[in-house]
Amino acid sequence: MTQEKRIRGGALLARALKEKGVDQVFTLAGGFCNPALEGFMECQIPVINCPHEQVAGHLADGYTRISRKPAVCLVGPEGFANAVPAMLEAGGERSPVIFVTGSSTLKRQGAGGFKEIDDVAIAAPLVKYSVQITDGERIGEFIDRAWQAATTGYPGPVHVSLPVDIMFSSFDVDAGREERPWKRHARVAQRAWPDPAELDRLLDVISNAERPIVIGGHGIWWSGSEKKLEIMARTLRMPVFNVPYHTKLLSEASEVYMGLADFHQYHPSKSAIHEADVAIMIGGRLDNQMNFGNPPFFPKETTLICVNGSATELENNYAADEVLLSDPGAFLDALSGIGRTWEPWFNLQKERRAAWVAEWETHIAAETTRDEAAGGNMHPLQLSLDVQTEMGNKDWLIFDGGNTHFWNEIAVNMAGWNGQKLGGIMHPGNYSLLGVGVSFGIAAKALHPDSNVVVVSGDGAFLSGGLSIEAAFQEGLPITVVIDNNGGLDCISQQQERLFSNGRHFATDFRDIPFHTMFEGLGGHGELVETRAELLPALRRAMASGKTACLNVKCRGVISPIVAATSDKRDKASIE
């Protein structure tokens, strides 16, 4: 008699994820996870082994953000603690990453098992769904539940804990298949359709507006509606702003895109938001960046409308004057057909953007002239502007850091106004977590292998997450890392100098770190750049080398407008 084939719980997990269409797993291989890794190998799901679990989480997050398809981060119990920051970052951007923990034995739970922690409880506040599988027969069911939670309504990361005794135990190959659902493939996410009467009423409010604006949030990206956003804005001549820290919904070169809805990183947004009689936030949240919907960000006289694709999001936006439960794409389609345009109001915002760009161009030209005359280090804004001149319309720009992030936000708006088009832009999300840049760059290269990927990182941000560069070498995914090296945590030291009574900074300086030689030692290309004249030739050599490369660029510390506003506490800044 032939014995029925049985497989381990880890293989059941892998098969369940394969059925959902998962095509990439990131991990730091550990003994608790070996059956799952064997299952991924048998299912031919690619696995990238990372130097740290936080790196694995950020890579999975970056891969998911770009592809809009869940990737998996697999870690052991002690590695789960290392992956927590990646859960936080993914949650801030509503990125539906599947975090899987190979956890301590279920049989002796609560008795002090090897590496036992309550991973489900720790993850619960950071993700949409956190569960421990207690029966191997139900592995497929809980992957179904996790996938549904991650990808529907208000998307976001999820966490599944699979105890090691279940991971290693043997089960029938068809375990859990005797009950519905018979088909376990990923279903098309269901979308909320607006109530016709409420939709018509709000469209009437908008059509009667004199100065409407749109503020786009993450919901537009995850619903795949950014093209509809651009069509609507072009048709109606309605200005569009992007929620800070979230994925860019439109190219900076788009004529309908004005900039961030942030008074300090893009100060013309203040005039537009304060003068608007109707502000339509689509797929966003009235959180701290929007001052919770309150003055002085949104004036009391402004009609504030929030359109979201899930009831959860609308609950978060209870302070809005008007709300509508609707898939962003469905709402944008309906809005496009209201039969009115706002050309003069739209042109005013374009004129303001042009004046803002001209003002910054004059300012940075003067700063750079002084720097070069004095033999000083580069201004970080000049660094970012120069880097973009060497990038094409299929290339990806990633930026990471404190002031480095903020200066790059200004630079991409300036370059976009002048016609610069990029394949994509990525940066830290809502929690402004340092150290994600290199991981995001590797994810972008994995999905766009024929594009140049350039990461502009502050030195502090690179020290936080730069170990992830080993994955680029290991996987043959060459990226170029440009380090804005100002010798310390400049964003923090500048705040200290305004806060501390002695006007000094403390515990924020670094030694002179030779980042470029680190890359050379790993087998890559590295160069030290001390003047602006050296930058572009070095960047061309780095991108042409075919290697993972580092330009260690000596820059001076310059406080960005948003950090200055926050530390001075004179205005209500959008990040406060």
Write the layout of secondary structure elements.
Elements: E1 6-8, H1 9-20, E2 25-27, H2 34-43, E3 47-49, H3 53-67, E4 72-75, H4 77-92, E5 98-103, H5 119-123, E6 129-132, H6 139-151, E7 158-163, H7 164-168, E8 170-172, H8 196-207, E9 212-216, H9 218-222, H10 226-236, E10 240-242, E11 257-260, H11 268-275, E12 278-282, E13 303-308, H12 311-316, E14 322-325, H13 328-336, H14 343-374, H15 380-389, E15 396-400, H16 403-417, E16 424-426, H17 437-447, E17 453-458, H18 459-465, H19 469-475, E18 480-485, H20 490-499, H21 515-521, E19 525-529, H22 532-544, E20 549-554, H23 561-568
Parallel strand pairs: 2-3, 2-4, 4-5, 5-7, 6-7, 9-10, 9-12, 10-11, 12-13, 13-14, 15-16, 15-17, 17-18, 18-20, 19-20
Antiparallel strand pairs: 1-8
Helix pairs in contact: 1-2, 1-6, 3-4, 3-17, 10-13, 15-16, 20-23
3D structure, described in words:
The strands form 4 sheets. A 6-stranded parallel beta sheet has the order 3-2-4-5-7-6. It has a 6-stranded parallel beta sheet with strand order 11-10-9-12-13-14, with helices on both faces. Helix 1 packs parallel to helix 6 and helix 20 (490-499) packs parallel to helix 23. The protein is globular. Helix content is 43%, strand content 16%. It folds into 3 domains: 6-172, Rossmann fold (3-Layer(aba) Sandwich), CATH 3.40.50; 196-349, 3-Layer(aba) Sandwich (Rossmann fold); 376-568, Rossmann fold (3-Layer(aba) Sandwich). By secondary structure, the chain is an alpha/beta fold. The chain contains 23 helices and 20 strands. The model is unreliable at 570-576 (pLDDT under 50). Strand 13, helix 12 (311-316) and strand 14 form a beta-alpha-beta unit.
